[in-house]
Write a structure and sequence with these properties.
5-stranded mixed β-sheet, globular, alpha/beta
Length: 276
């Protein structure tokens, strides 16, 4: 059976991330896991990665790095003018953590007297309010981050002049605020926005794209995020499902033989615009 190519173009937030990724071989590790996964189960897919030629640093800077400098100021999450949201999110995390410590010190509510239970209730309410504020800030941050990256990708992808649709995968450094949700600490996928108003295509990339944490130890994160880009959702069962939530640090998932995809997800992947 002929294999379908999952066409992926790898990018890097900046030359510093590229150098670290080159040293850690994270790209090779993730592609090797994905190809071993597809082959081992005879799923009929393979990763068609670009670029595959070991270009010079100058070429990478020009074509495959969103920023041309390295260092802490070149991280995607810092450069895209989202510092206000990040600062507020950090403050919210700190405040919520402090309240959790206070609740822990008080102990179970049922063991407290009336005054203690009242204090426990007040703290719990405040923690819930901070949780809601975190969710609100996360939505703002996430939307602004997506827009900024789409604008950055637009001219770069246009200059590559690829005749076929490819999925951009960007290695970058995740901020502490962005990684606080363990489900998002390894990778995040932004779905296609081609249903937006027509003029959007003139200023930003409207297809799906993936962010992968350059420090991720999850070997299956690339295959997992590719499925998200194809329209697959998180699932709770079966326990060895590639799209199972909370398996990012499960060591058994390091062996692709221990992981599977559902028939519905295989169908979604097979008809994805970046697969042929």
């Amino acid at each position: 059976m002929a294999k379908k190519d999952i066409r992926v173009t790898f990018f890097y937030a900046d030359t510093g991330v590229w150098k670290q990724a080159k040293k850690s071989k994270i790209r090779q590790t993730l592609v090797q896991w994905a190809d071993g996964f597809y082959d081992g189960h005879n799923y009929g897919f393979r990763i068609d990665q670009f670029p595959i030629v070991p270009y010079s640093e100058k070429v990478y800077q020009k074509k495959f790095c969103l920023f041309k400098t390295s260092g802490p100021k070149a991280r995607i999450v810092d450069v895209v003018a989202l510092s206000d949201e990040i600062d507020e999110m950090k403050k919210t995390i700190k405040a919520r953590s402090a309240i959790s410590d206070q609740l822990k010190a008080l102990g179970p509510r049922e063991d407290l007297d009336a005054a203690g239970q009242s204090a426990w209730d007040d703290l719990h309410k405040k923690r819930d309010e901070l949780g809601a504020e975190w969710d609100r800030l996360s939505l703002i941050y996430d939307a602004e981050l997506e827009m900024q990256i789409r604008r950055l990708l637009h001219p770069i992808i246009g200059s590559l002049s690829s005749p076929k649709e490819r999925l951009p995968v960007i290695f970058c450094e995740f901020s502490a605020a962005f990684s606080s949700d363990q489900r998002s600490a390894h990778g995040v996928t932004y779905r296609s926005r081609r249903t937006w108003y027509p003029s959007a295509v003139l200023t930003m990339y409207t297809g799906a794209f993936v962010l992968i944490n350059k420090d991720s130890k999850s070997r299956f994160v690339l295959a997992h995020e590719i499925c998200h880009a194809a329209g697959c959702e998180h699932q709770d069962t079966p326990p060895n499902n590639l799209m199972r939530v909370g398996r990012e640090t499960d060591r058994s998932f390091n062996d692709p033989a221990n992981v599977m995809m559902t028939p519905d997800d295989l169908t979604r992947l097979g008809v994805a615009i970046f697969v042929a």
